[in-house]
Structure formats: C-alpha cells, structure tokens
Specification:
It is a single chain. The protein is of the alpha/beta class. The protein has one domain: 2-enoyl-CoA Hydratase, Chain A, domain 1 (Alpha-Beta Complex). Helix content is 51%, strand content 15%. The strands form 2 sheets. The chain has a 6-stranded mixed beta sheet, with helices on both faces. A 4-stranded mixed beta sheet has the order 4-6-8-9.
C-alpha cells in the first residue's frame, strides 16, 4: 500500500462500490461496527478513490455515503493513539490527510456526499469537500479537532470559511460544537437538508441529473470553482502541518486518554 496508487475498485477493502445505470456509482464506507471510522487502510482508501473514479470512463458522477448509521466518525482511536507516539505514523497520516483534500480538488468527476449519519474528522472532510452535499435533518456533525487537542487541519481552515463565512467557521472550529442538518443548511455548510430517510435517494437523484448533463460543461465548471480552493491551499498546508505538530504534544495525548476513560480532558 505504501505510496502506490490504487488502480481498480478491487484494490479497496473498506469502500464498497455499486455501479448504477447512466453513469452513477455509489461508494460506501463499510466499517459499520466502528461507525465507519478510518483505520490506516481506510484513510488511504479515502485519498485513492478519486483517481480510480476519474479513470473509469463509465462513471460520470460519484455518490459517497456510509454503511449503517454513520457517514464516517473520522480516524479510529488506534490510528490516532499511534499518531501521538510515533513520528513515522504521524507522517503517514499527514500524507494521506493532505491527499484526500488535494485529490478531491483535482478530481474531474462531480462528487455528491449523502451524509446519512455522524460525520467527523476525515469523514467530515469528504462530506464537505464534495461538490454537492445532502444531509439528514437529525444527522449531527462536528469538526472535533480541538476537543482532541489538535488544530483543525483536515479541511476546516480551508473549507468552512468559504462555505459558511468566517464568523460561523471560527465558532464551530474553535468550540467543536455539534450541529444538525437543519443548522448546517441554514448557515450554508451543506447544499441540502432532507428528511433522514431521503438522504441517499436525493443524492442519487442529483447525481443522475448531473450524469445526464454535458460532462465537459459540468466538469469544467467544477474545475473553475475549485480555483477558490486552489488559491487557498497555503492555508490548508499550514493548518495540516500545525495539526500534525499537535499530535506530537501533550494535549493530544490527554485528549486520547480522556476519550478512552470517558471523561472531560484536562488541558
């Protein structure tokens, strides 16, 4: 796995693919027993999916969702704990976290996120980096980084100010408060909020509309709009580097211990 790009859907262990008619493919994070949290393998897969979809000439649009009752609860505790004690493990996740954002920005095909359950960390990065996001009314999300004792680096400093403005971005990234689908739509963080049971069907319906449209027109519109992200990549690079530095400090160790012991952290 180290450093090599995936070349086919068969290379993925924790993402399932359902090829629909008319150019839509549904990609499902499939670790439901852990709320689709990202271990080292899934975190890499989250960065590699975009190359494979882009190379598939039968696919015009991808819908991303989670199996069971979560979209993705972010990095699993084993991976996070290792990052607080191993410089080498931190470097691997620095590479993969950066690749998720960079590869989503550079991918050609439109991405629709069907946010069917809790979304945190790396999972939230994909949910909000998607070109169009559909979220359930009662679904809750949080960036969560500061609660763990690390800077908001996965995507937050890059994406949130553009989606919902600096005032709301700072509030939610500095407090790590949860917000539900209705509030996320109200502040502009997600594209659409629908009843929970309609999330996937609505996302697929939007994907089918895009797949039926002019692909050059849609892909080039996405490319131009993503210029706003590309010109802000120095902000993303700094935020990700600061997050990784935090993982090597005492606050991150305390944050992990507090989660393990089910108590408030003492920073």
């Amino acid at each position: 796995m180290a450093g090599d790009h995936f070349s086919s859907y068969a290379d993925f262990e924790y993402i399932d693919f359902d090829r629909r008619d008319n150019g839509v493919i549904v990609a499902t994070f499939n670790r439901p027993d852990t709320l689709n949290s990202a271990n080292v393998r899934l975190h890499r897969e989250m960065s590699e999916i975009w190359h494979v979809v882009d190379a598939d000439e039968q696919v015009r649009c991808v819908v991303v969702t989670g199996a069971g009752r979560a979209f993705s609860a972010g990095g699993d505790m084993g991976m996070i704990e290792e990052m607080t004690s191993s410089y080498e493990a931190m470097l691997v996740q620095w590479r993969d976290a950066g690749a998720i954002v960079e590869n989503m920005i550079s991918s050609r095909k439109p991405v629709i996120s069907a946010i069917n359950g809790v979304a945190v960390g790396a999972g939230l990065a994909i949910a909000l980096m998607a070109d169009i996001s559909v979220m359930g009314e009662s679904v809750r999300l949080t960036d969560g980084h500061v609660r763990l004792g690390v800077a908001a680096g996965d995507h937050g400093a890059l994406v949130w100010p553009m989606l919902c403005g600096m005032a709301k971005a700072k509030y939610y990234l500095l407090t790590a408060d949860f917000l539900d689908g209705r509030e996320a739509e109200r502040i502009g963080l997600v594209s659409k909020c629908v009843p929970d049971e309609q999330v996937l069907s609505e996302a697929i319906a939007i994907a089918e509309r895009l797949a039926a449209g002019s692909q050059l027109a849609i892909q080039w519109t996405k490319k131009a709009l993503n210029g706003w992200y590309r010109q802000s990549m120095p902000i993303f690079g700094e935020s990700l580097a600061l997050e990784m530095l935090c993982f090597l400090g005492e606050d991150a160790k305390e944050g992990v211990a507090a989660i393990r012991e089910k108590r408030p952290p003492h920073f």
